[in-house]
From TrEMBL:
Entry keywords, A to Z: Cytoplasm, Methyltransferase, rRNA processing, S-adenosyl-L-methionine, Transferase
Organism annotation: Brevundimonas halotolerans
GO MF term list: rRNA (cytosine-N4-)-methyltransferase activity
Gene Ontology, cellular component aspect: cytoplasm
Protein name: Ribosomal RNA small subunit methyltransferase H
Superkingdom of source: Bacteria
Length: 318
């Protein structure tokens, strides 16, 4: 077999394998292909893999797996939010796996514009289409900018940073990552011995906004619910609290484990049957052994569930 390039180690791999149980005759959807770490492990276990990714730069990794497993692997260029539509004509799948967030492969490519540590165009688009991070910081007004910095980045000084951005862009537009990082750092009064760069939260917020990551995740989870048959397995790895909270809330709702109301209040009859059963309570985090070889796993969490025979709930009103 050819050696596929491996620019990063897939996080929580052993836990994901345990949750997914890939085996000969099984069909697994790797909804966030990236560099193919999970896909390769599923293929090595004998499963068939259908991979999804909207990032065109992952093609070399897909080509390598296609050469190694021509009968059992294929990549579909699509966002994971399109999972239900893409797989509409496929036979039922046995598992769907998500690894949410930007990969170290993308962070290491300065030209992608994700990193505040490497100079590159202020882009951040996974698909290379649509509004870029530069478009946002150069055109959005103060209120919306401050809002996404606070909501998606949990940045306490969101208003101050938005003010600094508007003031600077009057002189010239933002085009480079380090330019924006420097403005954010100056707005916050420098690093002052902080363990993380002052622009960390702003860059995270911009990346989430540019790629509609939370909307994509919500639609992806609903899509997985739609395509998985009874006994189908769902595994989701997240890297920050916003994503993990969304997955937790989705599974809490779909497993029927929502908190009950007051015993004095009228009882509400729940007409929907649970569409998932949890594989385990809470989340699985990285072991000390994994963290020693893969620090990227520090904030990773895995949640997993098994599809019941109940109809999919579909999209619910907010």
């Amino acid at each position: 077999m050819t050696d596929a390039p491996r620019p990063h180690i897939p996080v929580l791999l052993e836990a994901v394998i345990k949750a997914v149980r890939p085996a000969p005759g099984q069909r697994v959807v790797d909804a966030t292909f990236g560099a193919g770490g999970y896909s390769r492990a599923f293929l090595e276990a004998g499963a068939e893999v259908i991979a999804l990714d909207r990032d065109p730069t992952v093609q070399p990794y897909a080509d390598a797996l296609g050469r190694d497993y021509p009968e059992r692997f294929r990549l579909i260029r699509a966002a994971f939010s399109e999972l239900a539509e893409v797989l509409a004509d496929e036979a039922p799948v046995d598992a769907v796996v998500f690894d949410i967030g930007v990969s170290s492969m993308q962070l290491d490519q300065a030209e992608r514009g994700f990193s505040f540590m490497k100079d590159g165009p202020l882009d951040m688009r996974m698909s290379r289409e649509g509004e870029s991070a530069a478009d946002i910081v150069n055109s959005w007004e103060h209120g919306p900018l401050a809002h996404i910095f606070k909501l998606y980045g949990d940045e306490r000084q969101s208003g101050r940073i938005a003010t600094a951005i508007l003031r600077r862009r009057v002189e010239r537009p933002f085009e480079r990552t380090l330019d924006l990082a420097d403005v954010v750092e100056a707005a916050l009064g420098g690093r002052r011995g902080a363990p993380t760069h002052p622009a960390t939260r702003v860059f995270q917020a911009l990346r989430i906004a540019v790629n509609d990551e939370l909307g994509e995740l919500a639609r992806g989870l609903e899509g997985a619910e739609a395509v998985l048959p009874e006994g189908g397995r769902l595994a989701v790895v997240t890297f920050h609290s916003l994503e993990d909270r969304m997955v937790k809330n989705f599974l809490t709702e779909r497993t029927g484990n929502t908190p009950g109301g007051s015993r004095h209040a009228p009882q509400v009859i729940e007409t929907r049957k649970p569409s998932f059963d949890l594989q385990f309570k809470g989340s699985v985090d990285a072991t000390d052994e994994e963290l020693a070889v893969n620090p990227r796993a520090r904030s990773a969490r895995l949640r997993a569930a098994v599809r019941t025979d109940a109809p999919a709930w579909g999209r619910l009103a907010a």
